[in-house]
Amino acid sequence: MKESQKALKDLQHAMKDSQAMKEFIQVELCNSVLLKRKPRSLSRLPLQLVTYLDASLGLA
Hints:
With 60 residues, this protein is mainly alpha-helical. It contains four helices and no strands.
């Protein structure tokens, strides 16, 4: 539970600055690839935001 609260705080902080948000997500994606696991914090993001971020990062 504490881990999810920390992840939520990290997300809220990162969302204040879109560049920080992009970096946060790139790190999550890299970690998920390197560790062969699903990025947990990304799975909790609203679908609309994930779609927007995919487009802005050139992933879509």
